[in-house]
Amino acid sequence: QQQVKQSPQSLIVQKGGISIINCAYENTAFDYFPWYQQFPGKGPALLIAIRPDVSEKKEGRFTISFNKSAKQFSLHIMDSQPGDSATYFCAASRRGTNAGKSTFGDGTTLTVKP
Amino acid sequence: GAVVSQHPSRVICKSGTSVKIECRSLDFQATTMFWYRQFPKQSLMLMATSNEGSKATYEQGVEKDKFLINHASLTLSTLTVTSAHPEDSSFYICSARPPTGQGSHFTGELFFGEGSRLTVL
Question: Which residue out of A42, A87, A90, A98 would a mutagenesis test of the B interface target, given it has the greatest number of B Cβ atoms within 10 Å?
Fold first, then answer.
């Protein structure tokens, strides 16, 4: 049972465009939703994260939109740049004893064309 | 941000040998670390949760005798792939969780190592 579903699998965007990646979760106990960016041959790095008590969080060109009732959250990359080309993973986890034991989406490979 | 160091970044070994991968949290004490395996163009698959001073908790389907995990100190966890075979070739990644309840650190945030590419010939 996949608890976090991510789409699309791959995405091609022109430089300056908006990249949108979506995730849906099933477990309502999840209360921490991060997005990770991974470049080839490297480990993931935290990009931005949100908790369910807010509907949106923005950091620079990156925005998370969160819809608790729909159990969905998305990553928006504004003014996408070629340097943003990477694989993006959404994740979900719970606080408490399992804190940090994240469930990951399958990833989205983003290509930003110059 | 916090730094997690993983070593080696690449290792090639012969079939039947054992390989040890180290994961160090450089600027915080990590009571909990996680080990993942990642196949090309796939997501991270959690292998085990490493707890300092106690036995690791392995995910279903992961052979604990094959993948030995030791978390001997608050800054170091090791993964040993024993009697490696070509099918063990993969990208292994660790992550560390900052302590909870301290300052602005909140539960859930993970810091990842750079990964270790294992190739078994």
Answer: A42
A35-89: per-residue pLDDT in tens?
Answer: 999 999 999 999 999 988 899 999 999 999 999 999 999 999 999 999 999 999 9
Assess whether pLDDT exceeds 70 at residue B104.
no
What whole-number percentage of chain A has pLDDT above 70? 93
Q: How many beta-carbon pairs under 8 angstroms link A with B?
A: 66
What values do phi and psi take at A77, rounded to 5? -110, 110
A32 to B6: CB separation less than 8 angstroms, yes or no? no
Cβ–Cβ < 8 Å for A74, A58: no
Contact A108, A6 (CB under 8 A): yes
Residue B41 banded pLDDT, cuts 50, 70, 90: confident
Burial of A28 (0-12, 13-18, 19+ CB in 10 A): exposed
Dist. CA A47–CA A49, nearest whole Å: 7
